[in-house]
Amino acid sequence: MKLIQDLKGKTAVVTGGAGFVPSHLVDRLLADGLRVVALDNFVTGHARNIEHLGDNPAFDFIEHDVSEPFDVKGPVDFVFHMASPASPIDYVQIPVETLKAGSYASHNALDLALKKKATYLVASTSEVYGDPEIHPQREEYWGNVNSIGVRSCYDEAKRYAEAATMAYHRAHGLDTKIVRIFNTYGPRMRLDDGRVVPAFIGQALRGEPMTIFGDGSQTRSFCYVSDLVDGIWRLARSNYNLPVNCGNPNEMSMRQFAEAIAKFFGTELRIDPKPLPPDDPKVRKPDISRAKEILGWEPVVSFDTGIRETIEYFRDFVPVA
Ligand SMILES: NC(=O)c1ccc[n+]([C@@H]2O[C@H](COP(=O)([O-])OP(=O)(O)OC[C@H]3O[C@@H](n4cnc5c(N)ncnc54)[C@H](O)[C@@H]3O)[C@@H](O)[C@H]2O)c1
Q: Domains (ranges, CATH) in the chain?
């Protein structure tokens, strides 16, 4: 598929722009010559993720809760709705804000895209598949989600966000994209966000045993952030409107992942076992055939390279013992 190449003078709005993935997207858009307006209320993101952009005349920041209506001056060509608490410990603590980020904020971002005749892209998630009964997960799979479980505030918010996106596409002809993001890691994650990559690296840096839930046989597949951002940006410039999985199909069990981190640090694996949290998916691996076929996209950053970059980033946040 041919992607839009003429980006001169284009403007993108990125909700959640001070977050982990969105701030990397902002960097990529600026590097490709766009003007970028980012909005964030810092509920889970941090100003340090965008402070390097302070003097960039092509970058504007608006501190705002995007679950409340908002407007952006001037023409807008792309609206990326990325704002949402994204890690289980975040969204379980603020379930109502999470539901609003998928619902109210989706409508606000969709309405902006409609008003500006912009292309709209929403950051959805592999969590829309819930605890999947098919493996790996293809976009055609409708999912297995517990609508009243502790994770439902996130899973159902994202399912709603997808439904709203398709409704604006069908009812108003809005050019919309849905990216279903699988576990992504890299610099600018928070050490304390509860996700397994910063959790294990933080524990390894502090010389602590690694917390493994259950027997550690549950699997995840980890995508490096620059690969994900490339997939998102390709999707935004395509003419494809149905959901696309973006993630790395390189699947590993939690135990294998802990062993790999211990190996990086040249230490013996020590484990702190904890009970499996409710509704924790047992397997997670994207089928990325659609992204390969439509976007010509697949991850290119090796696990070793990605983890090394991430460990280097986190070293600054852990005091040397
Ligand atoms: N990182 C992953 O592995 C992953 C996986 C699946 C989906 N996603 C999606 O990608 C997006 C970014 O995730 P992330 O991992 O970078 O998380 P993050 O928490 O680092 O980034 C989200 C950003 O959104 C902001 N935000 C949240 N609610 C807001 C609101 N109401 N108004 C304004 N700003 C708000 C936060 O402050 C934060 O800066 C999210 O939509 C998430 O659901 C991420």
A: 11-185+225-249+285-300 (3.40.50.720)
